[in-house]
Known about the structure:
The protein is globular. Helices cover 9% and strands 29% of the residues. It is mainly beta. The two termini are 37 Å apart. The chain has 7 helices and 45 strands.
Amino acid sequence: MHLRGLSTGRAGRRAWAATVTAGVLAAGLLSGPAASARPVTEPSSTTMSVPSPPGGANVRVLIFYGSAAAGDESPVVNAGIEAIERIGLTGPQERRFAVEATDDASVFTDGSRLGTFHAIVFLTGGGDVLDAEQEAGLEAYMEAGGGFVGLHDAARAEPYSDWFTGLIGARPAASSPTALQRAVVEVGDRQHPATRELPVQWRRADQWPNWVKNPSGEVHTVARVRESTYAPGASANGWDHPVSWCRDYDGGRSFYTGMGGTVSSYDEADFQAHLRGALLWTTRLVRADCKATITGNYRAQRLTKPNQAGLNDQIGEPHGLVTAPDGRVLYIGRGGADSSRPVVTDWNDPDVGTGQAQIHVYDPRTQKVTLAGELTVFGNKGGGDELVKVEEGLLGIELDPRFSENGWVYLHYTPHSGLDRDRQTAARRVSRFTLDPATQKLNLSSEKVLLTWPVQVHSCCHAGGGMAWDSKGNLYIATGDNNSSQFSDGYSGNNPAPNYKGLSFADARRTAGNTNNLNGKILRIHPESDGTYTLPAGNLFTGRETDEGGGRTRGEIYVMGVRNPARISVDRSTDVLYAGWVGPDASVPSTIWGPAKYDTFAVISRAGNRGWPYCMGNKQPYRDRNLPDPSKPLGWYDCDHPKNESPNNDGLMNLPPVTGNNIWYAPQGGAPDYPRDAQGVPSYRQDEATYLLPWLKGGGQAAMNGPVYRYDAASTSAAKWPAYWDGKWFVGDFYDADQPRDAVLTDPRTQGDGGLPVHAESLKKIVPIGNDGIKNLMDWKFGPDGALYVLDYGRGFFTSDAKSALWKVTYTGGGPTPAANLLAR
């Protein structure tokens, strides 16, 4: 620390600070509500003051505007003082406060006087404004529980002080832009009093500092500035550019905003609301959580051990999980086996593809794992080329809404018993089983088959598998397009030619684009107690539609046109469906065939068509293929009026219009978009691409949709995630390098029509990445305790290994501050 010529070391300053701290405490800063009612003292000749608010509020705020810069007083300072004075005089009587302003730094060495203020605002032009003893006084004030608000250039104050850097949170880069620019502020914290009244996308003009070191993860960011909406300059921070944040620091509370660099800022109603909330928290008039995104406040704990050799006593090939109301976690293994079990790939062998799928139960009370049961599935063909590997098996699990009473478990799987080796097809099903609560064993003889449909298994891939309930007892079932990834150059899976014994396996228009096929869909049914199901109103089709060509529909279809939706979720507070699916394999866009691989996430508020294999992303079309030569292109598909003209289609020819999706990403970046011609066809030229979601990137990618978190204020669980995350949608990827692992906010007004997310928060330091963390995210859900449970697939494919595991991520940061008994009155 720079001591400006004084010989006092850190230990000496601390000793002095301890003396000041005693004075501050004696002055009543933290003596509780009654003792905080101190009179407003007469200002010295070097200060400005305003009268007490009507009613004689007891809370006081000190504005310090001392500056190292010579010259006249800044107009910004005057505007800031006047605005804070107005804020102190408005609002409910119990939320008002008195204001005193000074540029005399000696106030920080007068402990008895400093202790009369509930918060200090730094409204300074920056520079070396405090000497060593004055800074020690400020430190003592914070250690005694004081509040601090820093505005804009306050981040340039005390440039030699590490402690002040911590108090502020970050330092501006020397090359930060100084021009007044209009930008969009993403207000991610919808709970903090400084931001909950603000628009999620807050458009305003200011100066926007860049940061030498991004403070995200060390402070709690409440708002970010979107760099794509202004010119951030060479020192830009990127998509994660915090602009307002807070933290509990050194015994007190600190709030900083990089905004407020202009006189006009202080006339804005929204900016005044921002300041008001910051002051209410720092003065102890209200409590708030400034810990929710500080990464050190989370603990990721592996719950399961590696399997014993040759056994699946802890975990199978991880493929899905669900949490029970009593806290137990049930998770499934798809059917791949370790190296001790041979993989049969010869179609002449009756055991071809035989796998053992597992259902395990983790009990948090005993911290033990029970193997609840195993199913014999078609799902273990292992690696190899496109005609050898398989993604069938045990694909999804859900618990009945009345599971605590009936023990019913729903499984989505492909039994080996339904295999037709001659035609190389199988019968996928959704069945209901009963779990014995005493033994935690699944009664396999209790199976009730609700729904079954055919799938080709000659060629891999895309089985889907996720399931979810809404609040009305409807069960959603996600199915993959059951289509080969090859034969279309990695673009649209629409090659009508390849087939096995007459059954196409490379034309997703036979499946995802077909109104009469249950593959490549999200189905919605209402299970009944007798093991049957009925069709709820509002699905995409009734099952009675036909056309002149003889095409038909299936009434179970809620969403068509999805490729491989492994994970879906329903927010039961809104009954909105959330889904994610994997895209095709092309690594770059093609001016001939269309977009590159787009992994996709969608908010689905009504039945509809999500486009595959005709369109992806924000309605970006693919090209049709010719016959008899599918390598020759025809016209571009029409996303608003798609037609299924495939010879493999037995459904309707005229399809519902495509709804654009909310999130899509390619190896080049998040949400690629291109200029479009008069017919609305994008150029697909990489040098013309705009990336609408800069926080996203792909590469090797496999979208893994997550839940929407809902905070339970009544829960007494110490592990639950804070209210900050309430309403945020968790989106992730199987991979953990450049791929997403984020909590996002969407706009309810546009989300159902493909509106882009308005805010994203990285989770990579909370749900830890890396080989010793959760590297290969397979599924994630919140439990009734408010903790996040996560499956790590492991480091291989079609098997389980020592890294395959169930994890739990808990919050450890504690509740809002200040403590309830220390609120000012």
